[in-house]
Amino acid sequence: MALEELEKELYRRDFDISEKRRAKRSSTSGRPAGHAGEQASKPPETWGEKSENERGVIEGAFEEAFEKTTSVGRRLFFVIIGVSVLVIAVSGFYLYQVFSARGIAVAIEAPDQTFIGSPFMLSVVTKNDSRSVLSEASITLNLPPGTVIVGEASDKTVEIKELGSIGLGGINRQDFEVIVLDGENTIKNFEVALVYKPSTLTTPFEKKIVKNVAVGKPALTLEVFAPNRVFSGENFELSLNYANNADFDFENLNLKIEYPPSFTFKSATLNPDAGNNFWNLGDLKSGSEGILVIDGNIVGPDQSFFDLRSTISVSLAGKRYDIVGRNTSLSISPSPLALSIFVNDSVDYIAKPGDFLNYMITYQNNTGTGLRDVILTLRLVGEMFDFTNVNTDGFVSSLNRVVSWNAANVPELRLLPAGARGNVNVSIKATSAYPISRLNDKDFILSASAQIESPTVPALVGAERTIGVAALETKVGGRIDINAKAFFRDAASGILNSGPWPPMVDAPTQYTVHWELKNFSTDVSSVEVRAFLLGGIRWTGKVQSNIENIPEYNERTQEIIWKIPRIQATRGIIGEPIKSIFQIEATPSVGFIGRYLPLVSETRVRGIDEFTGLEITNLDFGLSTVLTDDMTVGAGQGAVRQ
């Protein structure tokens, strides 16, 4: 029976049952009223008679139960139909995907193991054994970190190839030459995703595969030998040994060494091809090796450390790749000729504009040999050194910013005995103003670097001369200014003041107070400006600022607080200052007749100098009805009158 016919039959049965029930109820309710009395006078019926008489009632109850059961069954029927449709749809979609991918294979052909710096071929093979043509096919190769396709940039990690259509039984092969640049004794995971559309469908499908390649040692090894510790200025050898451990030849190898700034190149067993740190090593056959020895020295403070970076690169497909590199650390042993610098008896003094900087340079001969013809120099570098204010017994070259001492002005330097020590001094003034002319004129430093040397070389020290060096950097702290002003006539601010002028006893007069902040050479954070309203002064609540933060008033303490998270260096020196304006109201008492009425206490500002890490503070005088900044007020007009 069809679904529509089944529904009609069910509805017809429901209708017939309902009609029977209504007829039964009608026949019962339609009996005469006296009939009930007759029933009451009859003797009790037997069980058989009672069943016969109540058959209609039982039948009605049965029919009602059947009606409910039929209704529930109908709903259950539709639920089953819906669930069946959903199951069929999901199963169909699953089968659709399975059969759409059936017969389509993708594989990665690559060695299971490779070496760093050794190029290898990675091939992606796609085969279509399905029953439909694949259209708009493409593969995406995701490269693991530390690998690159030869000829591509080192930071390229994804390669996409459009395959177009692949016919029935068709095979597509894409080859990629890959090189591993780092990751010794690791596993590199190469992932390929094939995207395609079966010709009979419009939905694209994707199939992924991963190939794991183990990475061994570098195909080209590089070893660097150097002493762990050297004296400042002492010559030492840097030996670089390189070898080709691969089963193929390397072509067009280059070697580059990055020296620290204080390194002095003396010579090398192979002349550099560019500057003093670049060599074209040429070709290196399988199993062969080479050696390069460099001679030089480093000048630096005692116990300081320096790094040298050596890198060998290879040229492949027009691109150069670093395939092996080594870092070498050197430390400076305490010099036979020790040197130290102090400024104002400290090594971490924070200078201020206008300071006198008293430098003391101490030296000591730590060898067992007397050192002859000692020369000591001090170089002062920094925009805030004022060479017009220098006091020293050394020779001053303002052009080179160098102060020097030798036996001519310090006789003890002609021969410095073993174990002897001494010191020289320089006093120089810092400029009274910050040299700010641009936004980035900030964080000023005063640098002092000293060097002491003698042509005498102690035994067993491989140097041309005995040298000691020292350096000291002194930061110049920042400064922040607060300027507090009060006005009676201040229409330009947008706040109108009212009340009598000159001020009168027991009569309120309004004033506007301006705060202006200027920040000089350093960024300052956690800035706070504070002041108190004095007796008889009221906060009106009118306040404004040219930044997001505005002053707030604490009514209990009568304190005005302006908190600013951060102010950049040169704000107000270059560009507009930070400003705020607020209104107050003053009611003089009789005790101020003939006197100026105090309005606001002294204004203080504090903040953290981000360059030095120190707190900086400043203040401005308190305000009264003198109103020295209000050009509309004459001298003496601010005195309170009766």
TrEMBL record:
Task: Give the transmembrane region(s).
Answer: 76-96
* Region of interest (Disordered), residue spans: 19-53
Key word Transmembrane present: yes
Q: Which domain of life is it from?
A: Bacteria
What keywords would UniProt list here? Membrane, Transmembrane, Transmembrane helix
Protein name per Swiss-Prot or TrEMBL: DUF11 domain-containing protein
Source organism (scientific name): Candidatus Wolfebacteria bacterium RIFCSPLOWO2_01_FULL_45_19
